[in-house]
């Protein structure tokens, strides 16, 4: 692509030559119209550029007239001669003359840029130096200071397009934190219309620069995800936003847009954009005070603000900015302290008026951040309010801290600082008021001399009276109480009014709306210097919720006590029944053997169980030995145990074998009303043959102890009782020898929570095999050394052969 040629206009700025024309075609009416419009636009742009250039040249002529004390014609001739001698264009020479005369930020940026790039710049590019661009842009701003849109177009055309920028936006900052699009260039009209107003709190690129008050550079707007004007046209473009302000005040933000990601820029480019922001700052201040950036000797007029401060009831000071030699904010001058002013250090306000803020209050620039807050409000115009801020003052070089609510706002060139030192008495009164409201407590004071009665709002609410109703005197309180409380109220009033003692009473307050409230009244007498009763003060507290809670708790306690008594009686009866049927110790004498029984009830009486045992000599001469365990606890388990034990006794008289007895007992269990289940083991011992036949229903097998050790009976089939209506049980047979010991027991002897039944049974076999002594000693040892931890009932039958 051929680069457009540049051409100089006499005394004017650089203008781009039109691109080479396309092959000629037959003109059409529409084509001629388009060409005419484009020609007119080009002429308008050239006229604007020529005007900007002429303004810069005229500014240089004025400087020469002042220095040489000559006429305008002589200054023009002198400028032409200097151009011929130096070989520079009128624009370049005019920019150099203005830079030398101004010595401002623009000249500093231009000089720095020229020094870095002049050696490498070709002669044909001299007219596009940074100095010419910046001064041309400045002349355009000065020529169109009232037209911010023209300013934006001049910035883009003269200074920003040469560095690759495609669009520029000038934002005006409002005191409420919002941003308004004051001017733009390079953006479509519909896009500018969408972004004409940005509400406070929206995190755009200019908002970041305004909040930080420093230039912000975004390399890739799409990658950062920050919305801003034109992000749809150039989603991956770069942005640079620079606060625009003077004298410590930020009037707005200059935002520059690049179409591509922005690589790190050299310092001179950043300083160029900062210089442009400084040039257009004065166009953003719609109503600048005439002396906002005046020297220290010329202070802004704050007479109207003084009248405002004097009308406030809180301590207030008026601050005006103090600028350094470079125009930067250095401090604030205390122009006025109102009549309500109270200095934390105890100084009179005459000693504070006229002083610098950091000199009068050096701690404001420390950790409290007060100076930074005032500086931010002065710069952005956004008011600041906060509660319970720590303010520190030096008193004899000792820092004293107080807590205050502060408000900072900007009014023209001045800042209004208002604070309210937190009153400890008022704060405690406020806390007391909240406590009374939360506790439903109403306070009163009654002057017995004048009859004046003072109530707080909560006391009116307790009585159900409007705030305009007359308070109820303490003597008339019985008329508003339940008649049953009259005796207690009489003692209360005599104690307070006659005996002058503090007293309290609980009563039922009858309100006019028919609601009955339970109230506690506490009162104390107030005596004068002669020890006469002068007044009574005290409080009412609504204890209705507490009263009804106590009533409910009392009823619950009574019901719980009744339930516990009934449960204890049921357990006592069940335990008596259990002990009556199965005493803890029992002996049976039979031919050729000795039978001993041990029964250990559960450790908790509320867990009366269904364990049972039975030993009986039948008419046939056989001896019935049985143990069982009904599932569950309580009276149902105890009654079920009685039924099964007696049923087995009656069935055993028929002469049937153990298996048949278990089958019949299962039928009885299955048809019981309560649908209980149980386990059992039953044996019939014949003393003549020493043969024992046995059967089991889900129970652990008996244990045989001989001289060589202990072993369990071989396990035979047998379902627990009550599970199915018809069950057939197996039957086993074993021949006993002299001195054998037979053990039948329930699972309470061996059952453990942390071990299996097999392991627990193995422990029992080891203990039984190592036992010595007579039968009673062995059974006692088994109960003592049992590892069972389920707190269940335990039954053990020991049978020892002679």
UniProtKB/TrEMBL annotation:
Residues 1-29 are annotated as: Disordered. InterPro entries: ANTAR, Bact_Sigma-Reg, GAF, GAF-like_dom_sf, PAS, PAS-assoc_C, PAS-like_dom_sf, PPM-type-like_dom_sf. Residues 37-98 form the ANTAR domain. SUPFAM superfamilies: GAF domain-like, PP2C-like, PYP-like sensor domain (PAS domain). SMART domains: ANTAR, PP2C_SIG. The keyword Hydrolase applies. Residues 503-555 form the PAC domain. Gene3D superfamilies: 3.30.450.40, PAS domain, PPM-type phosphatase domain, Winged helix-like DNA-binding domain superfamily/Winged helix DNA-binding domain. Keywords: Hydrolase, Transcription, Transcription regulation. It holds the Pfam family GAF_2. It comes from the Bacteria. This is SpoIIE family protein phosphatase. The lineage of its organism: Bacteria, Bacillati, Actinomycetota, Actinomycetes, Kitasatosporales.
């Amino acid at each position: 692509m051929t680069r457009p040629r540049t051409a100089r206009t006499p005394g004017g700025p650089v203008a781009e030559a039109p691109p080479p024309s396309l092959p000629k075609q037959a003109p059409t009416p529409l084509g001629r119209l388009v060409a005419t419009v484009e020609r007119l636009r080009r002429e308008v742009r050239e006229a604007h550029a020529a005007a900007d250039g002429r303004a810069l040249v005229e500014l240089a002529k004025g400087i020469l007239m002042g220095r040489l004390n000559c006429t305008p014609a002589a200054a023009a001739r002198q400028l032409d001669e200097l151009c011929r001698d130096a070989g520079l264009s009128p624009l370049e020479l005019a920019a150099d003359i203005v830079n030398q005369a101004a010595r401002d930020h623009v000249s500093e940026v231009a000089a720095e840029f020229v020094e870095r790039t002049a050696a490498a710049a070709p002669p044909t590019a001299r007219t596009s130096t940074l100095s010419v661009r910046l001064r041309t842009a400045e002349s355009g701003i000065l020529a169109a200071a009232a037209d911010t849109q023209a300013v934006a177009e001049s910035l883009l055309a003269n200074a920003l397009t040469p560095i690759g920028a495609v669009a520029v936006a000038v934002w005006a900052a409002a005191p409420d934190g919002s941003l308004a699009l004051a001017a733009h260039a390079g953006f479509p009209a519909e896009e500018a219309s969408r972004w004409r107003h940005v509400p406070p709190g929206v995190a755009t690129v200019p908002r970041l620069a305004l909040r930080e008050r420093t230039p912000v550079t975004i390399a890739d707007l799409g990658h950062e995800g920050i919305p801003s004007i034109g992000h749809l046209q150039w989603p991956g473009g770069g942005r640079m936003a620079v606060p625009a302000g003077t004298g410590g005040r930020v009037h707005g933000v200059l935002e520059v847009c690049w179409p591509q990601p922005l690589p790190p820029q050299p310092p001179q480019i950043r300083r160029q954009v900062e210089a442009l922001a400084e040039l257009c700052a004065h166009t953003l201040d719609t109503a600048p005070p005439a002396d906002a950036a005046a020297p220290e000797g010329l202070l802004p007029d704050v007479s109207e603000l003084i009248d405002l401060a004097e009308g406030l009831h809180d301590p207030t000071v008026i601050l005006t900015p103090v600028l350094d030699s470079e125009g930067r904010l250095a401090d604030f001058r205390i122009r006025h302290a109102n009549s309500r002013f109270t200095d934390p250090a105890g100084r009179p306000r005459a000693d504070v008026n006229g002083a610098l803020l950091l000199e009068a209050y050096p701690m404001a620039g420390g950790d409290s951040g007060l100076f930074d807050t005032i500086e931010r409000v002065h710069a952005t115009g956004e008011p600041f309010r906060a509660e319970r801020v720590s303010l520190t003052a030096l008193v004899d070089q000792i820092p004293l801290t107080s807590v205050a609510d502060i408000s900072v706002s900007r009014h023209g060139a001045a800042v209004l600082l208002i604070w309210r030192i937190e009153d400890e008495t008022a704060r405690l009164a406020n806390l007391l008021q909240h406590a009374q409201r939360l506790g439903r407590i109403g306070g009163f004071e009654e002057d017995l001399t004048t009859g004046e009665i003072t109530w707080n709002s909560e006391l009116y609410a307790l009585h159900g009276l409007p705030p305009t109703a007359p308070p109820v005197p303490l003597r008339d309180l019985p008329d508003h109480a339940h008649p049953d409380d009259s005796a207690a109220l009489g003692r209360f009033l005599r104690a307070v009014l006659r005996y002058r003692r503090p007293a309290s009473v609980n009563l039922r307050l009858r309100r006019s709306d028919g609601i009955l409230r339970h109230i506690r009244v506490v009162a104390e007498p107030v005596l004068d210097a002669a020890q006469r009763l002068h007044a009574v003060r005290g409080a009412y507290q609504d204890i209705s919720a507490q009263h009804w809670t106590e009533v409910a708790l009392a009823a619950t306690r009574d019901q719980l006590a009744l339930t516990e008594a009934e449960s204890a009686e049921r357990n006592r009866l069940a335990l008596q029944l259990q002990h009556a049927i199965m005493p803890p110790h029992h002996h049976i004498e039979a031919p050729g053997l000795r039978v001993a029984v041990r029964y250990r009830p559960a450790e908790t009486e509320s867990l009366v169980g269904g364990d049972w045992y039975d030993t009986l000599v039948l008419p046939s001469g056989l001896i019935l030995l049985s143990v069982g365990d009904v599932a569950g606890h309580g009276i149902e388990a105890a009654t079920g145990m009685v039924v099964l034990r007696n049923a087995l006794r009656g069935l055993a008289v028929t002469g049937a074998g153990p298996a048949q007895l278990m089958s019949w007992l299962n039928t009885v269990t299955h048809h019981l009303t309560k649908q209980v289940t149980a386990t059992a083991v039953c044996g019939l011992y014949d003393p003549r043959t020493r043969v024992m036949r046995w059967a089991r229903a889900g129970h652990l097998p008996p244990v045989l102890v001989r001289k060589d050790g202990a072993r369990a009976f071989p396990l035979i089939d047998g379902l627990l009782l009550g599970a199915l209506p018809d069950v057939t049980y197996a039957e086993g047979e074993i021949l006993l020898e002299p001195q054998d010991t037979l053990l039948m027991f329930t699972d309470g002897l061996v059952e453990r929570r942390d071990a299996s039944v097999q392991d627990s049974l193995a422990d029992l076999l080891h203990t039984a095999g190592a036992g010595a002594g007579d039968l009673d000693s062995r059974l006692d040892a088994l109960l003592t050394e049992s590892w069972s931890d389920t707190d269940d009932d335990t039954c053990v039958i020991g049978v020892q052969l002679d």
